[in-house]
Design goal:
With 93 residues, this protein is of the alpha/beta class. It has one domain. Helix content is 32%, strand content 14%.
């Protein structure tokens, strides 16, 4: 099992709470803006709807040594909500 960055666990929130928060944030306009130029088609569209259309193009990075996912929680939350059985690209470092 992989863990989320401990800084994401605010005010006693659980991992499920983190993913629910990330999913909600991903549905806001401009939530994919920081991904422009990184092989995405997201831009100003909410990240959730872009992932629903294009799926995940850049792998989620998982750090094997400490079993943490530092970046990609929004993409994971979206993908799981859209199609929990579809594979997500992952890069283990």
């Amino acid at each position: 099992m992989f863990l989320v960055d401990p800084s994401e666990l605010k005010d006693g929130s659980t991992v499920d709470d983190v993913y629910a928060r990330k999913l909600k944030e991903s549905k806001k306009t401009g939530s994919g803006e920081h991904l422009i130029g990184r092989n995405y088609g997201y831009g100003q569209n909410p990240l959730f709807y872009s992932i629903r259309t294009y799926w995940i193009k850049e792998p989620i990075v998982v750090h094997i040594s400490d079993r943490l996912i530092y970046d990609g929680l929004h993409r994971i939350a979206c993908a799981y909500n859209i199609d929990k059985d579809k594979l997500i690209p992952v890069l283990y470092i």
